[in-house]
């Protein structure tokens, strides 16, 4: 059977399942969605081990935290939301909103996040009473098979239809391309090539943009509180999180104290030109991130670069030789390396962030450590990003947290800046259609011409 025929069969099965699942009421739907989160939470350790072993990236302990943390926060966000039948009745406007499924959802999942991205996508799809077909990254297909088996076992007790959640066991670019053309909507999380293909499929799609989070430290903040957060964000899962802090942009007067605090938190600091060149050559090949260092321990990165670092080093901080295109360190670095910049005014700090984002990461996010509302809102008005996270660990909290109001997710839209259709965190609401009833408002007040134009 050719790829097109194979996908046609999967989609046909998915359509039958979706039509049955559409009959479930809100309570039944929520029981199924909760089961997806709970099975990942309960199997967090084994799934983390499988992810590290198969992808050969990331940190086992961090993946446990991610599996447990995302399962909790996404379910906590979804459990009170309406997604079946009438979900909103606005007496003022006379508009009533009725939720409907989109149909069959196709998702493309990355090797950098092989457990929680499928979990998140499945939870959102099922919350909207859709069926789902998963196309995993070839480097994470064992993870995908294991987690889908767990999903199906967990929801079987709720009398769900067969083939509600399906998986492409042997993924390829060609098969995934056929999937995106055949489903009703695609969620693509991964490389920009795959995201572009999703948008070119002829069907609705949600994709993500590249990350390159610029982190600004404002004046008069508690450095001893800010630096541990930034370090924790940069080293989480060996730096493969798209929301991970990529730079520290600091005031020149705070340089000495911040560098000292970085070293106290496990950073090896590089100013020497020869060491910088060694690190550049191993991290970037023709300006592109070297796969061999993606998600690898900092000891391996240093060893490949021929740089000797002290025992206990957690990350490498490197003083950049310019901004934007002037230094490749201004780009996204998918390992525990962070670039250092200094500024004279907050406006200059924002200019540095903008220059770096023009090279990579436009539309994604910035992180600011500040207690100055004016500066925060100046940056938000000036920087072309979808999220501005304040005084938090960006890598673990930018995709939603118990301590901020961002929608919990693993898919972060980057707006038109990042060639995406949404400039917010993907949520279940993006995987439902809404029918709107418009009632006649007999008491509506129509303005006179004088009121309108006077």
Secondary structure layout plus pairing:
Blueprint: H1 3-21, H2 26-42, H3 44-55, H4 60-78, E1 85-90, E2 95-101, E3 104-109, H5 116-127, E4 131-136, H6 141-155, E5 165-167, H7 173-182, E6 185-188, H8 192-199, E7 205-207, E8 214-217, H9 223-235, E9 247-251, H10 255-264, E10 267-270, H11 273-283, E11 284-285, E12 288-289, H12 298-305, E13 315-319, E14 337-343, H13 346-359, E15 363-369, H14 373-382, E16 385-390, H15 394-397, E17 432-438, H16 449-453
Helix pairs in contact: 1-7, 2-4, 2-5, 2-6, 3-4, 3-6, 4-5, 9-10, 11-12, 13-14
Descriptive keywords:
454 residues; alpha/beta; Aldehyde Dehydrogenase, Chain A, domain 1; Aldehyde Dehydrogenase, Chain A, domain 2; 16 helices; 17 strands
Architecture overview:
41% of the residues lie in helices and 19% in strands. By secondary structure, the protein is α/β, with parallel strands linked by helices. It has 2 domains: 3-208 and 422-438, Aldehyde Dehydrogenase, Chain A, domain 1 (3-Layer(aba) Sandwich), CATH 3.40.605; 214-406, Aldehyde Dehydrogenase, Chain A, domain 2. The strands form 5 sheets. A 5-stranded parallel β-sheet has the order 5-4-3-6-7, with helices on both faces. It has a 4-stranded parallel β-sheet with strand order 9-14-13-10. Helix 3 runs antiparallel to helix 6. The longest helix has 19 residues, at 3-21. The termini are far apart. The model has no long low-confidence stretch (mean pLDDT 96).
């Amino acid at each position: 059977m050719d790829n097109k025929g194979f996908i046609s069969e999967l989609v046909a099965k998915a359509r039958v399942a979706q039509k049955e699942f559409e009959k479930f009421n809100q309570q039944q739907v929520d029981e199924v969605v909760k089961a997806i989160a709970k099975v990942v939470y309960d199997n967090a350790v084994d799934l983390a081990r499988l992810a590290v072993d198969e992808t050969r990236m990331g940190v086992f302990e961090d993946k446990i935290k991610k599996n447990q943390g995302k399962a909790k926060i996404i379910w906590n966000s979804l459990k009170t939301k309406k997604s079946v039948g009438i979900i909103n009745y606005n007496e003022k406007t006379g508009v009533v909103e009725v939720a409907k499924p989109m149909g069959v959802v196709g998702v493309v999942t990355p090797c950098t996040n092989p457990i929680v991205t499928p979990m998140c996508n499945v939870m959102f799809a099922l919350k909207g009473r859709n069926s789902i077909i998963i196309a995993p990254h070839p480097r994470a297909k064992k993870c995908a098979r294991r987690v889908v088996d767990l999903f199906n076992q967990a929801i079987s007790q709720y009398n769900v239809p067969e083939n509600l959640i399906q998986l492409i066991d042997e993924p390829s670019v060609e098969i995934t391309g056929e999937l995106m053309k055949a489903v009703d909507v695609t969620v693509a999380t991964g490389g920009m090539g795959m995201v572009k293909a999703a948008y070119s499929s002829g069907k609705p799609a949600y994709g993500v943009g590249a990350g390159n989070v610029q982190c600004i430290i404002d004046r008069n903040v508690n450095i001893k509180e800010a630096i541990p957060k930034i370090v924790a964000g940069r080293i989480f899962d060996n730096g493969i999180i798209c929301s991970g802090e990529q730079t520290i942009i600091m005031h020149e007067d705070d340089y000495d104290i911040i560098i000292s605090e970085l070293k106290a938190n496990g950073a090896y600091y590089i100013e020497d030109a020869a060491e910088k060149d060694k690190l550049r050559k191993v991290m970037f090949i023709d300006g592109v991130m070297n796969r061999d260092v993606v998600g690898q321990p900092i000891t391996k990165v240093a060893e490949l670069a021929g740089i000797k670092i002290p025992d206990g080093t957690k990350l490498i901080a490197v003083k950049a030789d310019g901004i934007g295109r002037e230094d490749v360190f201004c780009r996204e670095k998918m390992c525990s390396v962070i670039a250092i910049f200094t500024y004279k005014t907050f406006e200059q700090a924002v200019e540095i962030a903008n220059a770096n984002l023009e090279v990579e990461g436009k539309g994604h996010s910035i992180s600011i450590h500040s207690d100055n509302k004016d500066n925060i809102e100046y940056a938000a008005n000036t920087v072309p990003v979808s999220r501005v996270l304040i005084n938090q660990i960006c890598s673990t909290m930018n995709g939603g947290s118990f301590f901020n109001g961002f929608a919990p997710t693993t898919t972060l839209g980057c707006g038109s800046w990042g060639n995406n259709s949404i400039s917010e965190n993907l949520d279940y609401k993006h995987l439902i259609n809404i029918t709107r009833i418009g009632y006649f408002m007999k008491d509506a007040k129509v303005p006179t011409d004088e009121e309108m134009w006077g």
